[in-house]
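Let's practice the habit of predicting before peeking. Look at the sequence and jot down your guess about where helices and strands might fall. Then scroll down.
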Amino acid sequence: MHDLRPDGKMVSMKTKAALVEEINDLIAAVGDKLEAAEGDAERDFMAEHCPKRLEPKVRGLPALSVHLLTHIAEGPVSVVGLAARSGQLKGTVSKHVQRLVEAGLVERTPIPGNRKEVALEPTSDGCIVNEIHRRMHGEIRDGLRDFLAHYSNAELTVITKVLRDLLATEKVGVRIAVPE
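Done guessing? Here is the structure:
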């Protein structure tokens, strides 16, 4: 399929099916690229920006533990509350909280009148790690903002619509449900 440009030259036009296939491949490739680059670069950033004494702790913690620390820093919370706040399973949260406690980044304190639950709060070292993590995500946002700045408002509007629509879809088995 071909189309005529304003200057009179013919250009090749992809079919809708070919464009959809290319988008599908690109989404998978971008996901793979971001996922692969994420772990070590994030750990390196945090290790470079924290006090030397905290570097082994930062390098040894899984990313989920650090993200849970961010949720804990929002205010005292129980393990059950943290599971709800983070959207993770209670057992998963409990395992990561134990790692954070062992690393000296979170402390458990009894909740008055409740013998089963404890409140989780960041220690002073936990606050330092959380602040570095917050700054790192700011750097990530700034990089994405700089990358997207070279697109026009019209192009960004289309990208925004596609991403919102994609986010609003549901999966049925392994397929994305087509909106009706």
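How did you do? The longest helix spans residues 16-49.
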